[in-house]
Structures are given as structure tokens and as C-alpha cells.
Amino acid sequence: GTVDTGVQHTSPEKFYIEACDDGADAVLAIDRVSNEMTLTGCTPVTNTRMYLIVITKKRNVGSLLGHAVWKAVDFDVISYKKTVLHLTEDQTQDNKTFLSMINNVLTTDGFYFCTDYDLTHTLQRLADVSHDFQEMSLLERADQRFVWNGSLLREFLAQPELHKFAIPVVHGFIVMKPCRINGKIFEWILISRRSCFRAGVRYYVRGIDSEGHAANFVETEQIVLYNGGRASFVQTRGSMPFFWSQRPNLKYKPKPLISKNTNHMDGIQRHFDSQVLIYGKQTILNLVNQKGSEKPLEQAFAKMVSGMENGMIKYVAFDFHKECSRMRWDRLNILVDNVAETQDEYSYFMVDTEGKVLSQQKGTFRSNCMDCLDRTNVIQSMLARRSIQSQLQRMGVLHVAQRIEEQADFEKIYKNAWADNANACAKQYAGTGALKTDFTRTGKRTQMGLVMDGVNSAIRYYKNNFSDGFRQDSIDLFLGNYAVYETDVSPLSIFVSLIFTLAYVLFWGTAAAVTAAVIVFNGRDFVDAPKLVQKEKMD
């Protein structure tokens, strides 16, 4: 399991963990032999865990409505067993590989938590909850889409008195900045929550799964706190929600493939049913190219949305690269102006100093490009700027005739934070910082920005083809999509037989067979190849 602790002690027989709640005096004892978890007077809970993951270092990000928000900066993975001498040589090697997978995820920047506030929900969702919901623990009430340690904590969930030791951890990006305009100080906050459903890395996870969960789905909330009042504007991003793939094959841009034997309408319907239920009306901003290999995806998406005949969903296609070619980045305002009326209709969530709800957000913009990173982040930052312009005027921070773009100090904070958000999301999905962040930071494209985009693109190419297979398997292991059992045959051991099969194919096979073998093994460390084959069959 993953726990955040005030104090954690270790003895040869047990782990002793104190809750981090103020005034809490309970101590959780975990037996390292039987794996039983007990509190004084509690019935033991037995689990099958072999390791305890503990957050050992944290950094304060800021305060949200009086609640301290923390970023996890270091972890400790502690074995329940005092020795590994009982393992065979193969099991010992497998164990090292699985541990390296877990550490691969833990060292990916962007894990956040709060011990007394629910980071998984937006301000608007939290403002409209029942008394029973408020009485639940953070672990029970959390939005499971954004609880990245949910699988690790499932044994804790079974025993309510243990919940205080298990804090939901979100993955993404959070920044909190005190700002001043016209001598008035307000708090500006940006929170991006990555979904743990269909989570993964760039070329290995595209489209949706059978439940309608989209790859690289991120909910981004911009919050303003001033003089007791608060405002929030929410946007989402996610892969085009039908069944398509783009497996790495050593080409710079692998050709995306739309599945020919799946029910796309069922999948996209499931996706947008949940989106409408959670967020209200939807405006899709599809930013992909309308020519070349991206064109069929745009056409398919448009056709499916039209086929749903749902008045709650609006589709807008905008060829980002074509419109902004030759450094004409001012043309992004064409899209912003085009959806301005819709944005005014959707509005935003706002509460006055007395707690009265002044407005609610009635819909969201769901943006996507191919990766839902670079182009998407640029557009989201522009829509969010338009929203905060209205919010600050209603709050009395901005004068009626003032423009947010004219506030130099705030603009610097705003642009850099949105660029940092782009970098965080890009590193988590694509393995490098974002592209086009020079525009987000400065409002214009620069030659140095183009050079840095080239560098990041080259790094992405290498990682996507030669190391992301390991990263994908690591995420699946961490999230519980793949479970390790001591009595099962390890998929890593299957590698031995497969490597001889591959060698035989490479030596004796035809050109077509060799190409197929290279594609199957490409992008994965050899120890991960058996799992890739299993995944391909399931897909």
C-alpha cells in the first residue's frame, strides 16, 4: 500500500505508523510476517502485500482554502520480508525488475496529496454534496478517476478505521501563486488531475477502452480566491474517444490506425455519457491536422459525433498547424472568438464572500490534438485567460476597462505556470517537456523555441521507440492492471523461450516474418515482450 505518515517506525517484526491528522493518537501496526494490519481494539486485516510504499519527503505547494497541499518528493519501498533468501534465483531477478518498475513510476514527477481536503474534486462538485458525503473519509469520497494509489490502498478501504492512514494521491500538476493587481492580493491556482483509467505513455495508449475511458485524460481546474470569494473554471483534454492506435515502429510518426472490427459508436457513446453526466454540455475542440495521416482521425471523429445526434455535444475542428503556419500565432484568436459565445453560455463556478453561489459552470471544453499535449495546452491557456478576465472583474480586482494582458506581473506568473503545466503533462505522457511553450511563456513564437522543439522531438522519438515499453508496463503494474502473485509463472520468465523463437525467426524467417518480429519487440525491453504479446491479443 501507499501511505503518508506523520511518523513511521520499523522493527524486525512490524511497521508502526502514526496518522498525520492533527490530534490523532492512533498507531497502525503492520505485521511483516503475517501482513496483518491492526489498531488497538481492531480486528486484524490480512493482505498479500510484499512491500510498503511510504512517502518520506514532501514539499509544501501552498494552501487551498486553509488546507496545506503537499507534493511528494521522495518515497521508500520497504520489504515486508526481512530477507529474500527464500526466493529462487529467477524469482530474485524478477523481484528486482518489478521493483525497478515501481520506482520508475514513483520517480515520475507530479504526485500530490492533502491530508484534510479532497484534491480529486473540483470546487463546484464539492459545493454540491450531501451531508453523508461530507462525513466520508477522503479515501471513500475521492473521485476514483484521479486516485493513483487506489489499487495499492484497496485493503485499507475494507476497514474504515484505517482510512486516516491512507491518503489519496493525485498525479498531474499543481501550482499556487499569490498575485497582486491594483493593490489587491488574490490567490491564483492551477490544478491538473491525470486520470488513472487507461493511463500510459504516448504511443502505447491511444483512443479509448471498452468502458469509454480516454487515454491521457486530464481535468484542469483554474481557481481564483479573493477576499473570501472563489471562482473556478474547468477544462478537460483526452485522446480522440474511439478505437484507434499508433504503435511505435521506428518511423518518426507512426501511421495511426482506426480499428475495423470494433463498435466505435458504443465506445464514444459511453465516453460522452459520462462526460455529460459529470460536466454538462460538451464542446469538442479537435486541433489535429486536416490533411495527411491525421485527416482520417478528424473525419472519423466528426462523423461519430454527428451520428450521436446529441444536442449536448458540439464539435469544432480547427487545424492548428495550418492556421498558425509561418509563425502566424495571432490566428489562434480565430478559434477563441469562434467559441466565445459558447464559453459565455457555459460560464464558470463562482461563490461570493458570504458563500452564495453566483454562477455555475454548465459545460466544458474538451480539447484534443494527437497527444493532447502541446497544441491542446496552448488553446486551454487562452480560454482560461478569457475566463479569469471575467472573474477578476466581477470580484472587483480588475476595473471594467482593464485587460488581464496589460497586467505585466500577473501575465508573467500566468504564462509561466501554464507552460509549466504543459511540461508536466508532457513529461508524464511523452517523456519530455512540451513543445510550443515559448508561445505560452512569451505570447510569441521564437527561433530558440523552434530549436528546443526539435531537441524535445528527437528525445521523444528515442524514448517512444526504445524505453516507453518499460514505462508502460511499470504504470500497469503500479495501477494494478497487472498483478504479481508468488505462485504464478512470471511473465518475465517466458522471455527465455520467446528470445529463442525470435532468434530463429530472425535467422531463418522471411523478410515479412522478420519485420513482424521487429514490430512486436520494438519499443520494449526484451523482458517486457511477453506482456506486449498478451496485450496485443486483448486489444
From TrEMBL:
One of its GO terms (molecular function) is phosphatidylinositol-4-phosphate phosphatase activity. The chain crosses the membrane at residues 494-521. Keywords: Membrane, Transmembrane, Transmembrane helix. Pfam families: Syja_N (PF02383). GO terms for biological process: phosphatidylinositol dephosphorylation. Residues 102-431 form the SAC domain. It comes from the Eukaryota. One of its GO terms (cellular component) is endoplasmic reticulum. This is SAC domain-containing protein.
